[in-house]
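Figure S4 source data
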Amino acid sequence: MSKILLSSVIAMTMGSVSAAVYAADSATLSLTGSISPSSCDVSLSAESIDFGRIPASSLDEEFNEMMSAPFNVSVTCDAATAVAVQAVDNRLSSAMSPAELESSMGVTFPALTEKHIFGLGNDSANEKVGAMVMTITEATLGGVANNNVLSSSDKSAWTMHRVSSTSSFPLAKDSYFALGKTVESISPAPVTNSNYTLKSGVFLKRAGKYPSGEEVNVDGNVTFSIVYL
């Protein structure tokens, strides 16, 4: 009898559990998460270039050139990512054309086009102060020298440029630059860290071509931005 009773109790208990677990006809399990893209940052070794006070008396030539110290544009990513850097001229309205360079300073640069010449602001007479050209002289990818700088106007077709201290590459406004995967590659390399060494050349007119007795500001301003490819 005890065995029968025990069996009955067990059967009743299991029935209760079964009813609790399968109380609903259906149940839904949800699974959530998010896929985060790689993140990259761009930084400058110097956020400003200051030529200081330039005596008007020192601008005694038709064409006066000053060169900045080298500075670096660095890109870091939290994972290998195909990116380029874009340089935007925030003084675009004051940028000279090659023809204006020739007429105001008597100089021509056959290798430069209008897209390579950045603005330096206007003086009180609303005349363009001068011109700036920025060039890449060397670069590294993952800490290793890489002289294969690529440029593009549309992020689709890329042109190769060999850079060195004696053969620099002039940046173009609103265009993109990156590093090739290999020495001969025209495809941008995935980046975890890359570094570009640049110099900035400033061209100023003869002092007599600026408003007399006034301080004239040299006011270049360029934004470097990461562009994901």
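Figure S5 source data
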Amino acid sequence: MKVSYLMIFGGFFIGISSINAQDKTNLKLEDAIQLAWTKSNEISLASTKVETKKQELQSVKNTQYPDLKLTGQFLQLTEPTVKLEINAGSGSFPVPDRMLIGQASLKMPIFAGMKIQNGIQLQDNLFQAENAMASKTKEDVAMRVIDYYANLYKAQRTIELLKENQKSAEQRVTDFIALEKNGIIPRNDLLKSQLQVSKIQLSLDEALNNEKIINYYLVTLLKLPTETRLTVTESDLINFPKNSVPTDEQPAFQNRKDLEALQFQEKASQDNIKIAKGDYYPAVALTGGYAALNLNNVVTLENAMFIGVGISYDVSGIIKNSTQVKIAESKALEVKNTQELLKDNIRVQVQQAITNYDLAIKQSAVYNQAVEQATENYRIVKDKYENGLSDTNDLLEADVEQLKSKIAETIAKVDVIQKYYELLSATGQLSQTFNLSKI
């Protein structure tokens, strides 16, 4: 035979992976995605980063509140020499041996060049950016689950088709053995049919191996026991509900979370410029407090309250701070350029995803026709063979073409689904499809 089964599946199985297990578990695609969202280490890390930014935001917010400090001291004195500037008379002056000091101070920032307000806004934008990146991580994980899930279905369906073909090939060998014994066909034809069975077995072994690899990757991602074997039904994939198909990049500009994160980072960079410029202004704070002192046998000070305004201004900052402002402006320009670069990449990604989806639909239609053609061709060749009008080579080749067309049809159907979800991912609409925000 001219056609090798290994060549049939070589292109498909390169790079895919999947299962091994004793228990067969059916898991719907949406349930698998939800499970990945719950168990994935990537999601946990993204959520932790969001929590960190949330606490950093709260920390900056705390700087706008007053600073209240309480201090107290108890001092044991040795034999001090006490001299009073006022006239205490001729009597002896008591010598103190201990001193107590207590103080409460309050400092309330009034104006700091708007650095506090801008600092809060900066951290809030960084928090929102981290939230957006966490959502992007969730979509990426969901897309990985979809790819594993679809490839697992391809592998399992391929195995089913190979096993069906293997049965018919083995039956053909049995029939040919009887025909060869009776001298109806030459031994060469029997050997060809046996060789076909061997090639089918090799392809089946490779398909089973790839199924195990894909399954292992998927159950590892879902944090399921490694012995779990997942099965994918046709209804979970082939009959998936399609929403409106994007036709341009506009939905991506509205929904892509990585672009949204950069937009918040750009806002944060503008806040950073304002903070740098805030050093040009003085800092003003309201101060107040209460003090008490007891120097035993000498003096007691109580109810000593004070209030005032404190001003600080770094005069040298007028010269030095211009560099910090330029650095902040340069970083803001970096973020702006990164955002424009991402938009260009999004345009390319969306256009490629649209083209790939359209191609997958066209190929699926062609492969549907190919199955009908290959099936009819095999029927005709088989009739001719049984009537002595074609040889064994023609029969076996027609059988191979029929098998190839069925496998190609299955792969093409799933490719349509994968390309559709890839298009949704490119336009940032994948989470809306599975309503992942509720997970």
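The domain at 26-77+98-434 is CATH 1.20.1600.10 (Outer membrane efflux proteins (OEP)). The first helix runs from residue 5 to 13.
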